[in-house]
Write a structure and sequence with these properties.
The complex is a heterodimer of chains A (114) and B (113). Chain A is an all-beta fold and 114 residues long. Chain A is built from no helices and twelve strands. The model of chain A has no long low-confidence stretch (mean pLDDT 92). Chain B is built from no helices and eleven strands. The chains are: A mainly beta (114), B mainly beta (113). At the A-B interface, strand 5, strand 6 and strand 11 of A face strand 4, strand 5 and strand 10 of B.
Chain lengths: 114, 113
């Protein structure tokens, strides 16, 4: 079945630092890839997505590129802000004959210090 | 913009009791999903509906769990004879189609005493 591995947290950075959160996946076929974010006290929100190889998803300064050859979808941001502090979840969805639910990683807690 | 709504936000009950949660998806979203999230983990898929039809159930969904979406709009998730291990956040999500992103509600936190 599908699985997602993402780097363990917490990840603590200073404001304006460069961010990378690694995510790799195993899946059959050609899954769609997602990053969701959960801010303190709030529900999961879709941050960005990519549906095919070499696609780049982007939103709010965050980017992630669908790398089929390395089965990766790493999240990056050039300059983080305190308001980016949250838990980030990488997820994969394979739509094709089986369950269409998302498979999530365990989440990476990001802490940005001023 | 009306998002996915879940009720109640928090449910506290004694072991052995039955509980029912409700989810109201975004209007016109055909797909509705249920997930369970425990502390420090990502959400785990439980089941999903295409309109009123329940199309897939995870192995996590034991016989004590049942979900319905009778008119293809709101959905309910019932847990019978609750156990300590059922304590978790239960999340509902909806999407327009299977290819579209899922939008999540704020969840129902279940605490078993």
């Amino acid at each position: 079945g599908n699985s997602v591995t993402q780097m363990e947290g917490p990840v603590t950075l200073s404001e304006e630092a460069f961010l990378t959160i690694n995510c790799t996946y195993t899946a059959t076929g050609y899954p769609s890839l997602f990053w969701y974010v959960q801010y303190p006290g709030e529900g999961l929100q879709l941050l960005l997505k990519a549906t095919k190889a070499d696609d780049k998803g982007s939103n709010k300064g965050f980017e992630a590129t669908y790398r089929k050859e390395t089965t990766s979808f790493h999240l990056e941001k050039g300059s983080v802000q305190v308001s980016d502090s949250a838990v980030y979840f990488c997820a994969v969805m394979y739509s094709g004959g089986g369950a269409d639910g998302l498979t999530f990683g365990k989440g990476t807690h990001l802490i940005i210090q001023p | 913009d009306t998002g996915v709504s879940q009720d109640p936000r928090h449910k506290i009950t004694k072991r052995g009791q039955n509980v029912t949660f409700r989810c109201d998806p975004i209007s016109e979203h055909n797909r509705l999903y249920w997930y369970r999230q425990t502390l420090g983990q990502g959400p785990e898929f439980l089941t999903y509906f295409q309109n009123e039809a329940q199309l897939e159930k995870s192995r996590l969904l034991s016989d004590r769990f049942s979900a319905e979406r009778p008119k293809g709009s709101f959905s309910t998730l019932e847990i019978q004879r609750t156990e300590q291990g059922d304590s978790a956040m239960y999340l509902c999500a909806s999407s327009l189609t299977g290819e579209q992103p899922q939008h999540f509600g704020d969840g129902t936190r279940l605490s078993i005493l």
